[in-house]
Amino acid sequence: MKILFLNGPNLNLLGQREPEVYGRTTLKDIEAKVRERAARLGVEIDFRQTNLEGELVAWIQQSKGNFDVIVLNAAAYTHTSIALRDAISAVGIPTIEIHLSNIHAREEFRHKSLIAPVCCGQIVGFGADSYVLAVEASVSVNVNRK
Ligand code: CA2
């Protein structure tokens, strides 16, 4: 089984800015945690970050036939991107939406996710553990699909 982890804009700054909101863990630290859990479950991981909306769209399109599940922290594009939503719909690979913070407990504009209706579920508010929980959720989604 192969999972594609995609991270959107500014997540490369994790651990370096706004530690009061996002903590001190870097994206590299999170990737290491994800790889550790995935190895224990015998799952393959590809872990990527980009600040570009079009690159996320391209990666989602290219995942067809190459990955079983996509785990997506679309960051700010969560709240704005019809292009990402359309790409998830078009590719038809089960996609899990994740966030470090609880977007529903933050500013009003973060409450709306344009991608949620085309994702199979949402994991929010557990910090780096949202990513680790997403490994577990991906395995469950993949098993229940077969
Ligand atoms: O909680 C999440 O995971 C978010 O996807 C993070 C996004 C935010 O726009 C979403 O509403 C919720 C922001 C990612 C930017 O991360 C930063 C890290 C350090 C300093 C500044 C931004």
Number of strands: 5
Q: Give unreliable regions as ranges.
A: none
Order of helices and strands: EHHEHEHEEH
Between the first and last Cα atoms, what is the distance in angstroms? 12 Å
Shape: globular
Walk across the major sheet and give the strand order: 2-1-3-4-5
Main sheet specs: 5 strands, parallel
Number of helices, counting only DSSP H or I runs of 4 residues or more: 5
Beta strand %:
15-25%
What fraction, in percent, of the residue positions are helical? 25-40%
The Cα radius of gyration reads 14 Å
Query: What small-molecule ligands were found?
Result: ligand CA2
Overall pLDDT level: 96
Q: What class, by secondary structure content?
A: alpha/beta
Give a quick set of tags describing it.
single chain, 146 residues, alpha/beta, 5-stranded parallel beta sheet, 5 helices, 39% helix, binds ligand CA2
Question: What does this molecule look like?
Answer:
The chain starts with a strand and ends with a helix. Helix 2 packs parallel to helix 5 and helix 3 runs parallel beside helix 4. Strand 3, helix 4 and strand 4 form a beta-alpha-beta unit. It has a 5-stranded parallel beta sheet, sandwiched between helices. The protein is built from 5 helices and 5 strands. The mean pLDDT is 96. Helices cover 39% and strands 18% of the residues. It has 146 residues and is of the alpha/beta class. The longest helix is centred in the C-terminal third of the chain and has 18 residues. Bound molecules: ligand CA2. Ligand CA2 binds next to loops.
